[in-house]
Amino acid sequence: MAVTIQQIAERAGVSRGTVDRALNNRGRIDPKVAKQIKQIADEMGYVPKNRKRSASQKGKIKIGVVTQLARSSFMLEVNRGIRQAAEELEEKGIELIVREGFSVDEEEQLGAIDALVREGIQGLAVMPVDCEGIRVKLNWLIEEKKIPVVTFNSDLVGTKRSCYVGMDNQKSGRTAAGLLGMLTGGTGKVLVITGFFSNHVNNERVDGFVEELKNSYPNLELAGVQGSFDDSEEVDRIITNTILSMPGINGVFVASGGQEGIQRAYEKLKLERRPFTVIYDLTPNNRQALKDDVADFLIDQEAYVQGYQPPLILADILQKGKPVEEEYRYTDINIKTKYNI
């Protein structure tokens, strides 16, 4: 919703007339009060009517958004954030154009970016695939087309993007290792399941997990790292086969999607005591997994914020020429249990 003069007046504790005079530089008003009102208006994202008319006359600013793995449950919250940003930016004369990716595929993402460029975007928020083709494409956009780029959820080393919005994935992997280390007492065997080995986010989580295991829990053996393609049936198969073929598994870390398969595997195995289990993302299914004691800890990465912030950052760059002060805008690493969801 657009910010109104009345809302600014209520925040500032002054009348609507005072706000109107301050914002339009007319009438007698204390300079300190005027400065305070303008600061509050800026913080609230107030857009003057004349600026809205100007934007309408010139045509909307267009910001593109490119995602990955659109069918994954994690994307529900990301997309909610994107939709909220789109509603707010529409009031400011900015159009958000979203191109969903359904895989971690270079050609699919290159096609989506090219389509957005043809539509005339002036900024791009992207969950980049970690490959040279995307790296070259993003740097071309930034350097040749002068289109600012913000990466979110996943980052891409070697690009000149304005900033990254998302979790510190290596740190979250170390956090998961610490949780399982405490739960297991630092001994036993831990199975790690990732999604796609081509997914930079998954790889960083696994790297952080393995690093912390070696440094802090040398007696906790890594029973392998297997890829599930974010498929619940594959997660089920991996857990079932590994536990049957390798006695002593007392920890399972699932760093990506397909986590519904965990419960099916544990039910089939009919274990006297299931392995300690750590998963990611506060989706409806994962929330239920905590309630049903299928998992002990869940690491949430504020998916809504990851979808919401990048378009707003780009809007500030494009409308206000506002430079990005923080290169890394890390979301919180929130640890959830059945007691605090």
Helix content: 40-55%
Shape: elongated
Order of the strands making up the biggest sheet: 2-1-3-4-5-11
| Gap from first CA to last CA | 29 Å
In terms of structural class, how would the helical and strand content be classed? Answer: alpha/beta
How large a portion of the residues is in β-strands, by DSSP E?
Answer: 15-25%
**Overall strand count:** 12
List the domain count as a whole number.
3
CATH class membership of the largest domain:
Alpha Beta
Task: Explain what this protein looks like in three dimensions.
This protein is of the alpha/beta class and 341 residues long. It folds into three domains: 5-46; 59-166 and 303-332, 3-Layer(aba) Sandwich (Rossmann fold); 169-300, Response regulator (Rossmann fold, 3-Layer(aba) Sandwich). 48% of the residues lie in helices and 18% in strands. The chain has 13 helices and twelve strands. Strands 2-1-3-4-5-11 form a six-stranded parallel beta sheet, sandwiched between helices. Strands 7-6-8-9-10-12 form a six-stranded mixed beta sheet, with helices on both faces. Helix 2 packs across helix 3. The longest helix has 18 residues, at 303-320. The chain is elongated.
Summary of the model, kept short:
This protein has 13 helices and twelve strands. It is an alpha/beta fold and 341 residues long.
Which secondary structure elements does this structure contain, and how are they paired or packed?
Blueprint: H1 5-12, H2 16-24, H3 31-44, H4 49-58, E1 61-66, H5 75-90, E2 94-99, H6 106-118, E3 123-126, H7 132-143, E4 149-152, E5 163-166, H8 169-184, E6 188-194, H9 200-216, E7 220-227, H10 232-245, E8 249-254, H11 260-269, E9 276-280, H12 284-291, E10 297-300, H13 303-320, E11 328-330, E12 334-336
